[in-house]
Task: inverse folding
């Protein structure tokens, strides 16, 4: 990891931060003025820059501007006295990651720097992946229409509403709209409004002042400030609480908002792209969504087709995801036969592209040979039971009826479907209940026994850990489907703590 650079003319501040970060095994390099930092940037780069706002020979604000010209993605933390809060606001407008008020608590400072390091490492991984992987795949006419729409919108910053089922790739489309827009040089910030508790969503969107509520130890920028000059993607906008819709409408109308606990108006120049799997016209009629906000968002509507509407793209997507999974796991990519691809094409994919990606990840881990045959596909694809028909997709009144497969015999060993696929989740849940009632609770145990025997015979390492992870993942996945992604409610249903489910989701990689 590259070192963290500390810039402050006060030697005691540099000394305290150096010692605190050294205890955390974080590499550090210190500077007494901004000039030395600019000079050093010619030879190396930091992981994070922490700078005082007032220094002889150049302010932190000036340094921020010069650093952002060279390294736009570098997280910069500005240290400031309370009397310099106006300067801190200017820093945010210049792209600062956060500000650290003086005098500061050392553990708080270290935690903030760690957050910036994690953000820097995550951005580096994302940049590396995006440089190596295609932006979007699709030869089907329905996807070509989407690509043409992105092209037509490439020189526009108009508000766009993306509709489509969960897992169909709405965030990918939003990212493409940003990348090919005049704002491509600015940040792309995404937030899933359905995945954040109502009490925290306001602070996530608009930020909060220090002391605004219990635990607010520092001022925090919201997503609107983070996306200034770029694009803000509001996913699952149909689930936004009604009272927050009013605040969102205000920002969209005049670009002005207040942080939680704040009294000074903030301004943000942001292009908003919203997405939903729901029918917003129905939500308006039900009184759950503001009509004026709907019209504000519904400037350009872009419908993303479900994967079953572009089955011809399944083979290319499957091969791409098998390559991607192999690279992530550090193994040789598996090949898939034409008969296995034909079976995949016949499947309706209620979880859409996300489900196909998860299936390919499952095959990379679970398929016994290097060549994937039809018999190697997960249970829900190889089951002989005809698929169950579900009601029409709620995202578009004219959409064809969704087709959902019969439940798998051994769901604990099946790849994970997306958490927020509401229509698919409801159909899968009811189908699973019916299967248990009809076949008895022994069916899943029999499937588990078969899988355990196979893994033991083939000498699969750490069978206990592998199956335990899959069992825990399936429990959490099913609970989150039932609660539409609400983690606290899912934890209550499972009889575990809120911290436990959050930790397990991170450990099992279910946030992806």
Result:
């Amino acid at each position: 990891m590259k070192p963290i650079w500390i810039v402050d003319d006060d030697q005691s501040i540099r000394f305290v931060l150096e010692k605190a970060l050294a205890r955390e095994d974080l590499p550090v390099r210190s500077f007494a003025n901004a000039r030395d930092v600019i000079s050093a940037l010619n030879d190396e780069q930091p992981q994070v820059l922490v700078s005082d706002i007032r220094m002889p020979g150049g302010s932190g604000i000036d340094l921020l501007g010069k650093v952002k010209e060279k390294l736009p993605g570098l997280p910069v933390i500005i240290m400031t006295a309370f009397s310099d809060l106006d300067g801190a606001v200017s820093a945010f407008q210049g792209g600062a990651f956060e500000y650290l008020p003086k005098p500061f608590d050392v553990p708080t400072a270290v935690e903030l720097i760690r957050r910036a390091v994690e953000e820097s490492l995550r951005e580096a991984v994302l940049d590396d992946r995006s440089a190596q992987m295609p932006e979007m795949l699709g030869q089907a006419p329905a996807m070509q229409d989407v690509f043409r729409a992105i092209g037509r919108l490439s020189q526009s910053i108009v508000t766009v509403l993306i509709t489509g089922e969960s897992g169909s790739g709405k965030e990918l489309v939003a990212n493409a709209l940003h990348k090919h827009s005049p704002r491509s040089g600015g940040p792309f910030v995404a937030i899933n409004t359905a995945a954040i508790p109502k009490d925290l969503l306001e602070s996530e969107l608009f930020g909060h002042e220090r002391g605004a509520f219990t635990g607010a130890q520092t001022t925090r920028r919201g997503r609107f400030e983070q996306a200034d000059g770029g694009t803000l993607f509001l996913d699952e906008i149909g689930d936004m609480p009604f009272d927050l819709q009013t605040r969102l409408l205000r920002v969209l109308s005049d670009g002005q908002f207040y942080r939680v606990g704040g009294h000074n108006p903030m301004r943000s120049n942001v292009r908003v792209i919203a997405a939903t799997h729901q029918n917003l016209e129905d939500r308006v009629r039900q009184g759950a969504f503001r009509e004026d906000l709907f019209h504000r968002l519904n400037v350009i509507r872009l419908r993303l087709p479900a994967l079953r509407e572009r089955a011809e793209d399944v083979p290319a997507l499957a091969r791409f995801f098998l390559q991607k999974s192999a690279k992530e796991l550090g193994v040789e990519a598996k090949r898939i036969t034409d008969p296995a691809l034909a079976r995949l094409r016949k499947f309706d994919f209620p979880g859409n592209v996300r489900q196909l990606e998860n299936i390919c990840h499952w095959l990379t881990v679970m398929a016994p040979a290097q060549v994937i045959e039809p018999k190697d596909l997960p249970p829900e694809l190889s089951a002989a039971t005809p698929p169950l028909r579900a009601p029409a997709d709620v995202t578009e009144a004219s959409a064809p009826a969704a087709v959902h497969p019969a439940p798998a015999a051994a769901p604990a060993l099946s790849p994970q479907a997306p958490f927020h696929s509401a229509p698919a989740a409801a159909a899968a849940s009811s189908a699973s209940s019916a299967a248990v009632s009809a076949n008895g609770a022994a069916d899943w145990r029999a499937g588990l026994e078969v899988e355990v025997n196979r893994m033991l015979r083939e000498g699969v390492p750490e069978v206990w850990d592998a199956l335990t992870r899959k069992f825990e993942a399936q429990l959490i996945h099913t609970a989150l489907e039932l609660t539409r992604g609400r983690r606290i409610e899912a934890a209550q249903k499972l009889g575990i703590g809120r911290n436990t489910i959050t930790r397990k989701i991170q450990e099992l990689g279910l946030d992806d």
Observations:
- The two ends are 24 Å apart (CA to CA).
- The first strand starts at residue 4 and ends at 7.
